[in-house]
Design a protein that fits this description.
The protein is 0% helix and 38% strand. It is an all-beta fold.
């Protein structure tokens, strides 16, 4: 029997490290999804970086296509 897919509660989400990224890839370091309060599922990608002062930061891209997800970039999650 297949385990049911985990579904976030409204206002919650999660991000997962991209273990398929190779040095020099432009692919995101992290990918995840967030369920908005209205139930809309938003998928996002994050890249690790640092500010001009050297403090750690994430750059985030939210890009919904007509299916409510990120365009397929070959990452299997």
């Amino acid at each position: 029997m297949d385990k049911p897919k985990y579904e976030h509660k409204p206002g919650n989400g999660s991000a997962f490290k991209n273990n398929f990224k190779k040095p020099g890839d432009a692919k995101p370091d992290w990918k995840g999804e967030l369920k908005l309060d209205d139930g809309t599922l938003v998928k996002f990608a994050m890249w690790e970086g640092e500010t001009k002062n050297g403090a750690p930061k994430f750059s985030i891209k939210v890009d919904q296509n007509k299916d409510g997800g990120m365009p397929n970039d070959g990452i299997p999650f």
